[in-house]
């Protein structure tokens, strides 16, 4: 027989087979209760439930079949936090090592409380970059552009175009090299062979005036006079801009007049600092930029003749794509056969021209043209010079 446990008032009572034997002895003295219909079908067991108040008889209870419960899953054991970092992974698994560092307690001030909390994105890392600029005490001279360019050139970290050749052209009036500022001397204009003048230096000369077509007249006359006049500001020759006040002998270069704070007017007059009105004037001109077409009026035929008559020429005469090399000469016995109604054919004439190639489309080559003598008649020779090919020589008795 099985042991049955009853609970009453937090007290556990264990009844076994020995207790049942004792109860059977007391059965004779205790009157029996009427039998219930369940006694016939189910086995009965008589028990006694006792406590400190009274003794009660407990009738037989049906024995129910025990239900077989499914096996419980084994409990999941989690290692402690300090041991989780030391667990070694299997060879097939990924090994992760976690190192926990003690976190410093931040001291929150009143300013920190006002700031919004910074966001921390999971799986991202960042670093704080702090820049410290140290300025040495005392006099510090920053490097100039030339020093920086030289330093970068030594490093070889930059690519620069080839330097532009320096402009050695010099103005005949102010003696400054190269083109000037737009709001100053302005660009250089050609006066003669290797003779150049700044636009405003020539325009503001006393003798020079401008036509409606943009031609400057009497520039050579002003240049000859300037060779004898000394500037009141720089004390150099070439000054041509004089004060418009009667009997005033102050004369300046155009650039020196600007530096001396002379006053220029719209009617192309100028007053020196001694005679200029005080304050501003409604006719005062403060901007000297010239964007219109301006050129120096000159005799081009005489200029070409002076170039041709020079024996040893250090300059090249070029008109468009035609480059002039030599003019040649005609002897008295050649005059009758070496000319036409429109042109002369001097022996020794030589010029070159850049023109379209006869072999390739959209490519130019050089044609060297010359005049020779053969049997008392002119012979026209054209030599085709093209890169990658032998020179081709073409001859004929007529220019065409």
TrEMBL record:
Q: What is its EC number?
A: 2.1.1.364
What are the top taxonomic ranks of the organism?
Answer: Eukaryota, Metazoa, Chordata, Craniata, Vertebrata
Q: Where in the cell is it found?
A: Nucleus
Indicate the segments annotated as coiled coil, or none if absent: none
Q: Which domain of life is it from?
A: Eukaryota
- Per UniProt, what is the name of the gene that codes for the protein in this document? Kmt2c
The primary site where this protein sits is nucleus
Q: Which GO terms describe its biological process?
A: methylation; positive regulation of transcription by RNA polymerase II
Identify the keywords attached in UniProt to this record, alphabetized: Chromatin regulator, Metal-binding, Methyltransferase, Nucleus, Repeat, S-adenosyl-L-methionine, Transcription, Transcription regulation, Transferase, Zinc, Zinc-finger
Name the PANTHER family on file: HISTONE-LYSINE N-METHYLTRANSFERASE 2C, HL01030P-RELATED
Q: Which organism is it from?
A: Zapornia atra
- Write down what this protein is called: [histone H3]-lysine(4) N-methyltransferase
- Kinase in keyword set: no
Annotated PHD-type domain residues? 168-276
What's one GO-annotated cellular component?
MLL3/4 complex
First-tier enzyme category under EC: transferase
**Which catalysed reactions does the entry list for this protein?**
L-lysyl(4)-[histone H3] + S-adenosyl-L-methionine = N(6)-methyl-L-lysyl(4)-[histone H3] + S-adenosyl-L-homocysteine + H(+)
Q: Does the keyword ATP-binding apply?
A: no
Q: Which GO terms describe its molecular function?
A: histone H3K4 monomethyltransferase activity; transcription coactivator activity; zinc ion binding
């Amino acid at each position: 027989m099985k042991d049955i446990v009853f609970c009453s008032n937090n007290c556990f009572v264990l009844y076994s087979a020995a207790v049942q034997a004792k109860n059977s002895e007391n059965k004779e003295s205790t009157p029996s209760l009427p039998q219930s219909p369940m006694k016939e079908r189910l086995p009965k067991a008589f028990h006694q439930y006792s406590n400190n108040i009274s003794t009660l008889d407990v009738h037989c209870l049906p024995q129910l079949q025990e239900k077989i419960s499914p096996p419980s899953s084994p409990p999941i054991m989690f290692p402690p936090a300090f041991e989780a970092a030391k667990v070694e992974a299997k060879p097939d698994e990924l090994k992760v090592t976690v190192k926990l560092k003690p976190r410093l307690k931040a001291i929150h001030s009143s300013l920190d409380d006002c700031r919004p909390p910074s966001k921390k994105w999971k799986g991202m890392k960042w670093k704080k970059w702090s820049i410290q600029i140290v300025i040495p005490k005392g006099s510090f001279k920053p490097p100039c552009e030339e020093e920086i360019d030289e330093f970068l050139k030594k490093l070889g970290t930059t690519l620069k175009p080839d330097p532009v050749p320096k402009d050695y052209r010099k103005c005949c009036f102010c003696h400054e090299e190269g083109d000037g500022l737009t709001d100053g001397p302005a660009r250089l204009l050609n006066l003669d062979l290797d003779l150049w003048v700044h636009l405003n230096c020539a325009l503001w000369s006393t003798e020079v005036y401008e036509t409606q077509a943009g031609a400057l007249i009497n520039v050579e006359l002003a240049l000859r006079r300037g060779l004898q006049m000394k500037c009141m500001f720089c004390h150099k020759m070439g000054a041509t801009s004089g004060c418009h006040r009667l009997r005033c002998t102050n004369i300046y270069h155009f650039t020196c007049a600007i530096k001396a704070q002379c006053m220029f007017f719209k009617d192309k007059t100028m007053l020196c600092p001694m005679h200029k009105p005080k304050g501003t004037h409604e006719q005062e001109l403060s901007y000297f930029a010239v964007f219109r077409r301006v050129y120096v009026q000159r005799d081009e035929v005489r200029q070409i003749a002076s170039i041709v008559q020079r024996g040893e020429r250090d300059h090249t005469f070029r008109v468009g794509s035609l480059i002039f090399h030599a003019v040649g000469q005609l002897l008295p016995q050649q005059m009758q056969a070496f000319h036409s109604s429109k042109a002369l054919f001097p022996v020794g004439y030589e010029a070159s021209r850049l023109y379209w190639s006869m072999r390739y489309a959209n490519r130019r080559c050089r044609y060297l043209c010359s005049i020779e003598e053969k049997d008392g008649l002119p012979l026209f020779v054209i030599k085709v010079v093209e890169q990658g090919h032998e020179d081709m020589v073409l001859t004929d008795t007529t220019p065409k």
